UniProtKB/TrEMBL annotation:
The active site is at D168, D366. InterPro entries: Aspartic_peptidase_A1, Aspartic_peptidase_AS, PEPTIDASE_A1, Peptidase_aspartic_dom_sf, TAXi_C, TAXi_N. The keyword tRNA processing does not apply. The keyword Membrane does not apply. Belongs to the peptidase A1 family. This is Peptidase A1 domain-containing protein. It comes from Phaseolus vulgaris (Kidney bean). Gene3D superfamilies: Acid Proteases. Keywords: Hydrolase, Protease, Signal.
């Protein structure tokens, strides 16, 4: 407590000396609870994944009284399912950050391919030029790390078999590993066997779903698919329809998905992926969801939350217009107008976050990216504002992609300037301190959890979304952020 009062006192002194405005109202600052976040960081290292695994296998879904199109799935963090037993918290953080860089590269590659059709046809032949044998050629070697940060258990087939699937708002094509495997990575569930399902239907090459694929080929009249994630990971196999079951909340027949016989790269642990993007082949589009929402629990909390389809948006949500990029329909763009730090609007040219006619620029909300990426100029402005207002804190060396870190090891808690996103329509989403000051070791080093990108695409990552229910109201083109609705 003594530390706390002292730092508070220094903070306001520094603030009034260095800022042209004197901000002392409490909403302009927020408290970071250091003892509680370090406690979580230590706990997650010894978390026993098997516990969550067992729970989710036996979990009873409560029947819902809402309309039959309402579906709900439990949402789990990577650490609670496939904890890789890291020797210390810093190793865990560094592996998360390496995974995150691969993720961002993959989104940027996807965007580049969509924006630059010349480049795309060089990298991947167009649909008619692909031969079946081309589809099984690795684009490049996948990395050995598991990817995907949030997972749900869904049933596939008839009778339904349960699988852990990565949930991904940054892609559309659903797929899972399938027998017979020419190459399957390690997964926790037995690999799906089409011969044991009565609802497995291969799609023909002239099916609309097959036509909608970015990369497909035809063999004996049957549709083959390939998805390459731009980071070396890929999946290749037969494109089929199957029944997908959402725990006890219902099932949907004839969902198009890939039955992957050759799968490599980033998805170790999960059986496959559910695409929640905005394109026609995503799960969201196929079940014609008017909305979906998820809540991403703090990744160190060991807790789970839910992914819901067609549930109402919480009344207290901060809303942002949901925008479309004409060149790529997968990503969810929002109309971000700027930032404030400690109550001061950060000076950033308004066009920095706009998506232009050619599809360049813009800001997407992504479930799979951890650290928010901002165009360098915007990042620098936000970071400089934050640094200016935290001169009371002891600086520490940068870690990985973080250039602004602090040694908070001697403190129990500390008051820091509030960082807020501003959206069109004068909406302000104020983040809790733990969503932008994150521990990078268990000793008390914290870093400012934003990063610059030289790409034109800015990304709102899941560290910033933690503890917030994010609702994608597709029918009304609005994204809602509701704090403390997990
Ligand atoms: C920090 O969190 C701990 C445990 O969650 C709690 O007991 C304590 O009161 C919190 N401190 C502050 C300053 O909020």
């Amino acid at each position: 407590m003594a530390h706390f009062s002292l730092s508070l006192c220094i903070f306001f002194t520094v603030l009034s000396l260095t800022s042209s405005f004197t901000i002392t109202t409490p909403s302009h600052t927020t408290i970071l609870n250091i003892s509680s976040s370090l406690h979580q960081a230590r706990q997650i290292l010894s978390f026993k994944p098997q516990q969550a695994f067992q729970q989710t296998l036996t979990q009873k879904q409560t029947p819902t009284s809402r309309s039959s199109s309402f579906f709900s799935l439990q949402l789990h963090t990577r650490e609670t399912l496939f904890n890789a037993q890291h020797p210390d918290y810093k190793t865990l953080v560094l592996s998360r950050l390496a995974r995150d860089s691969a993720r961002v590269n993959s989104l940027e590659t996807k965007l580049q391919l969509a924006l630059n059709s010349v480049k795309r046809s060089e990298l991947y032949p167009t649909q008619t030029e692909i031969r079946p044998e081309d589809l099984s050629t690795p684009v490049s070697s996948g990395t050995s790390q598991g990817s995907g940060e949030y997972f749900s258990r869904v049933g596939v087939g008839q009778p339904a078999k349960p699988f852990f699937m990565v949930l991904d708002t940054g892609s559309d094509v659903n797929w899972l590993q399938c027998k017979p495997c020419s190459d399957c990575y390690q997964q926790t569930d037995p690999v799906f066997d089409p011969t044991s399902s009565s609802s497995y239907y291969p799609l023909t090459c002239d099916a609309q779903q097959c036509q909608d694929l970015e990369m497909s080929a035809c063999r004996n009249g049957r549709c083959l698919y390939q998805v390459a994630y731009g980071d070396g990971s890929f999946t290749v196999g037969e494109y089929v329809t199957e029944t997908v079951s959402f725990g006890g909340s219902g099932s949907v027949n004839r969902v198009a998905m890939g039955c992957g016989h050759d799968n490599e790269g980033l998805f170790i642990g999960a059986a496959g992926l559910l695409g929640l993007g905005g394109g026609p082949l995503s799960l969201t589009s196929q079940i014609k969801a008017a909305s979906f929402s998820y809540c991403l629990v703090d990744r160190d909390s060991g807790k789970s939350s839910t992914l819901e389809f067609n549930s109402p948006r919480p009344g207290d949500s901060v809303t942002a217009p949901l925008l479309k990029n004409q060149k790529v329909n997968t990503f969810y763009y929002v109309e971000l107008t700027g930032f404030s730090v400690g109550g001061d609007i950060v000076s950033i040219p308004p066009e920095t976050f706009a998506v232009d006619q050619s599809g360049v620029g813009g800001v997407i909300v992504d479930s799979g990216t951890a650290i928010t990426r901002l165009r360098t100029q915007a990042y620098n402005a936000v970071r400089d504002a934050f640094k200016r207002m935290t001169q009371n804190l002891r600086p520490a060396d940068g870690v990985a992609l973080f250039d602004t870190c602090y040694d908070l090891s001697s403190l129990q808690s500390v008051r820091v300037p509030t960082v807020s996103f501003h959206f069109a329509g004068d909406k302000t989403w104020a983040l809790p301190a733990k969503n932008y000051l994150i521990p990078v070791d268990s000793a008390g080093t914290y870093c400012f959890a934003f990063a610059p990108t030289t790409s034109s695409l800015s990304i709102i990552g899941n560290v910033q979304q933690q503890g917030t229910r994010v609702s994608f109201d597709l029918a009304n083109s609005v994204v809602g952020f509701s704090p403390n609705k997990c």
